[in-house]
């Protein structure tokens, strides 16, 4: 049996593979079968996110008009879908993770530890957990920075964080101008602002204090 | 297999065609290796670009087709599907007909597969460049290529299974690994590229993603590579494998435990703890299995140790095995929660990936090419010195890169846990990233020496063919 063709093909090849699939993939599928998968339309029905989308329209009226028109639900859905597509296509997920672990002080740096329900939606198909952090985790990024901050940052990360190794994304803009984000630019900003929008503690960037300020000695 | 045994077998079958020239399509073996080398250099340009980006020396900014994020995906995909897969097909075309004494199913099919596979790999690269990547690590192949790739894998299995199925008598270890790998590769590719894209999301998709990353290394690359080692090492050392029992333990241990490891890529995620522990325990089990395989190969080497100095292919193979053992020992540590806390998400993991993909599997292929090209071209190497440079630059480069990235990972882990601003971890990584860049350049230099040597050897072979 251990050296015969059928043993190798059926037991080793198919049998053990299936056993691993059942125990390692089917078990979580069954565990989470009661968590409904949210569609992008459902995700877009979120006040934090709608606020950011309207803010984009106010800040970049001409560009917004040109690529999206109204700041309505339908266009928000469209922007989210495109943003998510760009996030995968540009390989952002090879430099940024999207889950907070319960260890290494991660919840002090970024906020609530990740839970399964957060990922049960269409934009996490395939899931964007990531395996490498060259840059920080982004799953709580929404609301921490203003839309204009992101517009400048994607155009030239080094202008805001001088030694940042993050690439410049000039093709998110018209006329090579950071004040003119194009369809893709507006979409990726919307996507980034979506991250964490489902949480109670969605921050407001004007009150948001970066970690280094929180850590500063008040007596200094 | 000796000539005598072959001719006797040929006369048993009453077929007069069973000499090597008819069994093995040597031209195809050479073409596969050359295609693999082309992708290796494409992959290098991606790795180099990302390495330059990390230290902010990347001169090619501004065009979306030169985006480092996209080229990083080309780096890994070109290595897996371009370099490794092509070299495996070369190895299979060389080894399977010799082991079974039967040609592959069909020669035209072999050439068709060769072309079809290059189309798959080139369109993968093109799709990634156009920003169409799929969001699955190692499965970035755009969605519309997946069915094509699956059809290709099925044809490969068909082409090689035909001679294996016909072979009579007990099967040699190599063929166990190959047969299982044909099944596993197909199933793994289908599972990883289809389920998380169309059927499941969130945590369950993450579990499948982990299974996929791991199975790709464990059930596609590893079994084919060990199968080839079981074939080439005894031939080069001119003696049988030390222990048949250990070969059995190695194969069945791998077959059982390896697929159970997947979730260890996503520890401390929302995946339930009992599944994480299951993956951790089976990972540690794999390290014991690996140890038996390593013992078996060093048992085989016992008494012929000098071959490591004098015989270049053997030196490549055994260096790779030592590095394999280091990789696996490292893995048994880093899979524990204690290490994961610190090193997950850091360059430690990238160091581990380079050690196994370059330090082990690529090294084995360089050994095979060093052995096979003189036979394919009927011409000994143009320069033994360049062969030595190839070895020492590769071995030195990967060692420096591995140590450097491992240290970088430990520093990064502590920088993050200490809650200093993110920029502090970037400043802290900078010297390590500069070192990795130069280690990478050394590796690339080694391969350039090899390609130049190959070019010169080919020219010599043309000249002697013309003279004859
Ligand atoms: C055949 C040789 C090589 C192989 C098989 C290889 C393989 C890999 C693999 C598997 C990864 C993914 C690591 C992970 O995400 O955990 C990777 C990433 C990378 N490789 Fe290579 N590599 C090779 C050569 C090089 C060279 C020569 C360089 C530098 C000049 C390089 C630079 C990089 C960089 C910068 C990354 C991205 C790491 C990150 O995300 O931080 N690689 N490579």
Note the main attributes of this structure:
heterodimer, A: 220 residues, mainly alpha, Cytochrome Bc1 Complex, Chain D, domain 2, 2 domains, 47% helix, B: 468 residues, Cytochrome C Oxidase, Chain A, 16 helices, 79% helix, 0% strand, globular, disordered N terminus, binds protoporphyrin IX containing FE
Quickly describe the structure:
The complex is a heterodimer of chains A (220) and B (468). Chain A is mostly helical. Chain A is 47% helix and 0% strand.
**Helicity level of chain A, as a percent range?**
40-55%
Shape of chain A: globular
> Measured on Cα atoms, how large is the radius of gyration of chain B?
22 Å
- State the low-pLDDT regions of chain A, or none: none
Uncertain segments of chain B of ≥5 residues (pLDDT<50)? 1-17
**Chain oligomer state:** heterodimer
What integer is the average pLDDT of chain B? 92
Mean pLDDT of chain A: 92
Instruction: List bound small molecules.
Output: protoporphyrin IX containing FE
What does this structure look like?
The complex is a heterodimer of chains A (220) and B (468). Helices cover 47% and strands 0% of the residues of chain A. In chain A, helix 3 (47-59) crosses helix 4, helix 5 (73-89) packs across helix 9 (183-194) and helix 7 (147-155) crosses helix 9. Chain A is mainly alpha-helical and 220 residues long. The termini of chain A are far apart. Chain B is an all-alpha fold and 468 residues long. The two termini of chain B are 29 Å apart. Chain B has 16 helices and no strands. Chains A and B meet through helix 1, helix 5, helix 6 and helix 10 of A and helix 4, helix 7, helix 8, helix 9 and helix 10 of B. The structure holds protoporphyrin IX containing FE (HEM).
Please outline the helices and strands.
The complex is a heterodimer of chains A (220) and B (468).
Chain A: H1 5-31, H2 40-44, H3 47-59, H4 61-67, H5 73-89, H6 106-110, H7 147-155, H8 157-160, H9 183-194, H10 211-215
Helix pairs in contact in A: 3-4, 3-9, 5-9, 7-9
Chain B: H1 3-13, H2 20-23, H3 26-54, H4 68-100, H5 107-129, H6 146-166, H7 173-199, H8 202-237, H9 244-257, H10 273-301, H11 307-310, H12 312-334, H13 337-343, H14 347-377, H15 384-417, H16 422-467
Helix pairs in contact in B: 3-4, 3-16, 4-5, 4-6, 4-8, 4-14, 5-6, 6-7, 7-8, 7-9, 9-10, 10-12, 12-14, 14-15, 15-16
Bound molecules: protoporphyrin IX containing FE (HEM).
């Amino acid at each position: 049996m251990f050296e015969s063709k059928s043993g190798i093909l059926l037991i080793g090849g198919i049998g053990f593979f299936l056993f691993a699939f059942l125990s390692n993939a089917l078990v979580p599928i069954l565990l989470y079968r009661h968590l409904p998968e949210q569609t992008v339309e459902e995700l877009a029905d979120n006040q934090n996110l709608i606020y950011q989308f309207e803010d984009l329209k106010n800040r970049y009226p001409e560009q917004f008009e040109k690529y999206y028109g109204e700041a309505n639900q339908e266009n928000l859905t469209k922007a989210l879908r495109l943003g998510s597509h760009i996030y995968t296509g540009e390989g952002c997920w090879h430099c940024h993770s999207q889950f907070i672990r319960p260890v290494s002080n991660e919840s002090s740096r970024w906020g609530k530890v990740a839970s399964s329900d957060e990922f049960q939606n269409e934009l996490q198909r395939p899931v964007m957990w990531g395996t490498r952090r060259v840059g920080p985790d982004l799953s709580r990024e929404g609301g921490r920075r203003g839309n204009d901050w992101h517009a400048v940052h994607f155009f030239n990360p080094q202008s805001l964080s001088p030694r940042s190794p993050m690439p410049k994304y000039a093709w998110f803009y018209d006329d090579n101008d950071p004040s003119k984000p194009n369809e893709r630019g507006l979409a990726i900003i919307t996507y980034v602002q979506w991250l964490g929008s489902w949480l109670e503690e969605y921050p407001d960037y004007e009150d948001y204090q970066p970690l280094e300020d929180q850590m500063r000695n008040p007596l200094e | 297999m000796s000539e005598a045994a072959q001719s006797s077998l040929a006369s048993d079958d009453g077929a007069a065609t069973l000499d090597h020239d008819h069994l093995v399509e040597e031209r195809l073996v050479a073409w596969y290796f050359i295609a693999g080398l082309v992708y290796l250099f494409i992959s290098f340009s991606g790795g180099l670009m990302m390495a330059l980006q990390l230290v902010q020396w990347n001169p090619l900014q501004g065009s979306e087709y030169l985006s480092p994020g996209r080229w990083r995906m080309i780096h890994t995909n070109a290595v897996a599907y371009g370099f490794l897969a092509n070299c495996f097909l070369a190895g299979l075309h060389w080894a399977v007909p010799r082991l079974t004494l039967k040609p592959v199913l069909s020669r035209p099919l072999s050439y068709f597969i060769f072309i079809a596979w290059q189309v798959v790999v080139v369109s993968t690269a093109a799709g990634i460049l156009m920003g169409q990547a799929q969001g699955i690590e190692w499965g970035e192949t755009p969605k519309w290529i997946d069915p094509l790739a699956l059809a290709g894998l099925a044809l490969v299995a068909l082409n090689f299974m035909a001679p294996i199925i016909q072979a009579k008598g007990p099967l040699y270890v190599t063929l166990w690994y190959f047969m299982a790998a044909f099944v596993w590769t197909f199933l793994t590719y289908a599972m990883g590229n289809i389920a998380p894209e169309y059927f499941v999301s969130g945590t369950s998709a993450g579990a499948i993603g982990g299974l996929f990353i791991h199975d790709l290394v464990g059930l596609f690359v590893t079994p084919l590579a060990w199968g080839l080692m079981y074939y080439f090492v005894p031939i080069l050392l001119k003696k049988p494998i030390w222990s048949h029992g250990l070969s059995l333990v190695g194969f069945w241990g791998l077959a059982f435990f390896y697929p159970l490891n997947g979730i260890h890529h996503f520890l401390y995620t929302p995946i339930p703890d009992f599944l994480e522990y299951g993956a951790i325990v089976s990972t540690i089990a794999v390290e014991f299995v690996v140890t038996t395989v390593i013992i078996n190969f060093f048992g085989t080497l016992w008494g012929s140790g000098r071959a490591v100095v004098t015989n270049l292919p053997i030196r490549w193979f055994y260096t790779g095995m030592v590095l394999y053992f280091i990789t696996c020992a490292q893995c048994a540590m880093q899979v524990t929660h204690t290490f994961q806390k610190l090193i997950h998400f850091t360059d430690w993991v990238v160091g581990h990936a380079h050690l196994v993909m370059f330090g082990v599997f690529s090294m084995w292929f360089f050994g095979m090419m060093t052995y096979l090209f003189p036979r394919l071209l009927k011409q000994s190497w143009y320069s033994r010195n360049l062969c030595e440079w190839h070895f020492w630059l590769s071995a030195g480069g990967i060692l420096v890169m591995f140590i450097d990235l491992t240290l970088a990972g430990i520093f990064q882990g502590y920088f993050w846990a200490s809650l200093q601003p993110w920029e502090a971890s970037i400043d802290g990584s900078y010297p390590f990233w500069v070192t990795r860049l130069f280690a990478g350049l050394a590796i690339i230099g080694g391969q350039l020496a090899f390609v130049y040597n190959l070019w010169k050897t080919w020219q010599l072979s043309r000249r002697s063919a013309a003279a004859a």
